[in-house]
Amino acid sequence: MDSFHTQHAPFGAFASFTLGLLDAPGGFGQSLGGPARQNVYVGVRPAPDQPWRMLPFFERKAPAESAFLGEGAAAAPAGAEPFEILHPPRFGRSLGWASDRWLLGPLVFKLCTPFEHVPDPATLDAEAARLHFAPLVCGYLEYDNTHCEEPVELLFGVGLPDRPWRPLADDGMPFVGFAAGRAFSYATLPSPEVTARQGFAPFAVGYRDATGGHRLGAESALLFTVPAGQKRIYPLVLAFFQGGPVTTGLACEFLYTRHFADLEDVLTHGLTHHAHYVRLAAQRDAELLGSKLSRDQQFLLLQATHSYLGSTQLLIRGDRPLWCVNEGEYRMLNTFDLTVDHLFWELEWHPWTVRNTLDLFVERYSYHDTVHMPDGRTAAGGLSFTHDMGVADQFSSPGRSSYECRDLTGCFSHMTAEQLLNWVVCAVTYAEKTGDHAWLEAQHAVLADCVTSLHRRDDPDPAQRNGLIKWDSDRCGPGGAEITTYDSLDASLGQARNNLYLGVKTLAAWLLLERAFHRLGNTTAAADAGATADRLAATLSVKFEDETGLFPAVFEAGNRSRILPAVEGFVYPLYLGMTDVLASDGRFSILLGQLGQHVARALQPGICLDAGSGGWKLSSTSHNTWFSKIAIAQYVIRQLFPQALTAPARAADAVHAGWQRQPGCGAFAMCDQIHSATGAALGSKYYPRGVTTLLWLRE
Length: 699
Prior knowledge:
- By secondary structure, the protein is α+β, with helices and mostly antiparallel strands.
- The chain has 2 domains: 39-61 and 77-242 and 260-286; 291-698, Glycosyltransferase.
- The protein contains 18 helices and 28 strands.
- A hairpin with a 2-residue loop joins strand 8 and strand 9 (107-112).
- Helix 4 (295-311) crosses helix 17 (647-661), helix 5 packs antiparallel against helix 6 and helix 11 (500-519) runs antiparallel to helix 12 (523-542).
- The two termini are 31 Å apart.
- 54% of the residues are buried.
């Protein structure tokens, strides 16, 4: 049985209304690293003498009024109304690219989280900004009662675990609903058919004050009565608001606070423009349904999209926007390893955010270091960038991340070479894709510094260079060594020095630098970048094992691991349409031919196809596989090495989708790190990076 949470999130609000896991709560969450724990009540009662039929999004619990009653006190005035919790197949669910719909007979419950192309905030007038940045989720309850002679009752409500609700009627607002202080709220339009209910249990008549509810109660609901012979659609708006500074280190506010006064303003806007948001969500849903992706591929993209939006945070400091994507459950700010993979999504939907992040890395999160070899030699290093910008709404100090530590050779060590490459490929890809050559010109000196730094990490002595990264940053300390983004894998992907994955990514960076310097008219630097790329390709080719048809993952210590991210670096020239350098009979024909053999051999059961599940493994020596990186590998392999895709390799999409649809991963919405045999979540939960699947729409 499919059972999974989905994040329903507005753009840039770092907030989600999470729902969908069977027999589990969810609800409103602001700046969380996982689902909230609020009971969500959605149901129908066909007649007063029948039980409520409820979707399974809450946990049973004793009414909270018992905490107020002494031992032996009288029971509540009225007991709980009868209800039954339903499970599939008694209801159905249909998740869309920008919506989520549940069908319970004639009842439709739908949530809409539309997204669209977002221009630079500096170019938007006030009304357009409100439409783009409203921190809300739209939804509705629909019921067709045209064939019945009796009215039917519908229910939508939320229970809070830690505080009572505030009835919106207190403020005389032109809608019906409830708010949790000033933080979040839900509401609908006023109607004689709508009643607000508040108390100790959503199904109880319970205690009543003069307004018909009990304000001590943390359970609230909207009760809708659909007249006999009628069809109704009742709009819902779920809103968030967090005013004032929300970050430290860099004091920032949410940008939406410049366009909305408070929670009630957001609700008014959402109900006024409800139809607009519903139409926009339907447009996105239709686009994905009309694509050539399979059902499983569509599911992986749409589930990833929902989680990406839930991690986005559009801030403003002074009068300057600051874009941030939080790293899922870890909540690190603008982790560069994610920025480089969100690149393709952001260039499609809001490319200015890429420039915004790159500028902040240069301004505040860059540094210069020295480098060392394992034998103790040291030399000048160069420019690089931090792993992240902080954690949990706390920006770290200039030139420092929240993650990287000294004297380590595994997780939490420094990723100096990796982040240097990330800035290069993001910068050039952004400039080429958007045509923002003025920005590229402004970064000419930064690119030149990146070149110097890359060369020195190969070897400070030009005569000893072969293109590979072989020196470690002294930020690692004398007992440490650099790692790659694949920090939780074994040395096959975790070690930066003499690493196949990083070698091919470095080759891609030199190819992009060659193009960028030609664009800038710097023919000397372009020639150097091109020559370095050729040298590195020749170095990699020598590492190929003719007898096995495979590359080792690391070119030292007799490493025998086999990896699929051997081809990951080619995603950038492939994305930019650099067909000349990727031609099978062109400049890098020998290396491309070898990599084609490598992936064909690797995509065999027991190597990089899990022998049990059939899912793709990033490394032959680790069950820790990352879906977002599988998606990149699939894109590159389908484009450059389609002959490597056997029937079992192609069938793995169903396995990958199955991982996300089951509670092992599904309890945390989109998960990235997954045990390839069991489908259990190993880490990177509630994670945004799965939007690498957007690349599939380009195929």
